[in-house]
Amino acid sequence: MLKRLRAIVLATREFVAPSYHPERHYMRGPGPACARRQSQAFFG
Question: What is the pLDDT of residues 17-26, one digit of tens each?
Fold first, then answer.
């Protein structure tokens, strides 16, 4: 009974305030190391 109540509370909390924030995991593009590698390959 307690296990089921805990699952319901956790599911409700996740619905109201999700713990996953996609903006924390979103890559905005290649970083400076990638740009350095490309410029070295291009200019030799």
Answer: 888 877 777 7
Size of the chain, expressed as the number of residues it contains: 44
Residue with tokens 């996953």: 20
Q: Which amino acid is at 21?
A: H
Which residue is associated with the tokens 């903006």? 23
pTM over 0.85: no
Torsion of the alpha carbons at 16, 19, 22 and 25, rounded to the nearest 10: 170
- Nearest in space to 4 (alpha carbons), one of 15, 19, 18, 12: 12
Residue at 14: amino acid letter: E
